[in-house]
Specification:
Helices cover about 75% and strands about 0% of the residues. It is built from 4 helices and no strands. The longest helix has about 35 residues, at about 20-55. The chain is elongated, with a radius of gyration of 23 Å. The two termini are about 35 Å apart.
């Protein structure tokens, strides 16, 4: 469902004069921006979550070894996630290859042209 809406949006952009490079750049920029925002929000949530846990920790939880967010663990997790993404990309919209994006844009252009032809036909019948 989301892909169909996205295809229509890309079709409108192309119909308004955007070339393939511009559309691909926009899609990749949106993907990177969303992933960065998600990562930053995740880090903030982890830091605040650990602080809240340390304040509200049960009485039996050792206070000397309270929970912390360790930078080494964050770096290891980030490197592992990046390597995993490079080796085996997810099959979501953000992981489409350039050829797949071009195919999607071509389908969107075809969709827009069909819609224009249908509009012309429906107007000529009236």
């Amino acid at each position: 469902v989301r892909g169909d809406g996205r295809r229509k949006e890309i079709g409108v952009r192309v119909a308004l004069g955007a070339n393939q490079g511009t559309v691909i750049r926009q899609v990749l920029t949106e993907s990177v921006l969303l992933s960065l925002i998600g990562g930053v929000l995740g880090l903030l949530l982890s830091f605040f979550g650990v602080r809240i846990f340390n304040v509200w920790a049960p009485f039996w939880f050792p206070r000397e070894t309270s929970a912390i967010v360790d930078a080494r663990v964050l770096l290891f997790s980030g490197k592992r996630r990046f390597a995993q993404t490079v080796d085996q990309p997810r099959r979501g919209f953000a992981s489409l290859s350039v050829d797949e994006l071009r195919d999607m844009i071509d389908k969107a252009i075809l969709h827009v042209r069909k819609q224009k032809a249908q509009n012309v036909r429906s107007r000529s019948r009236k």
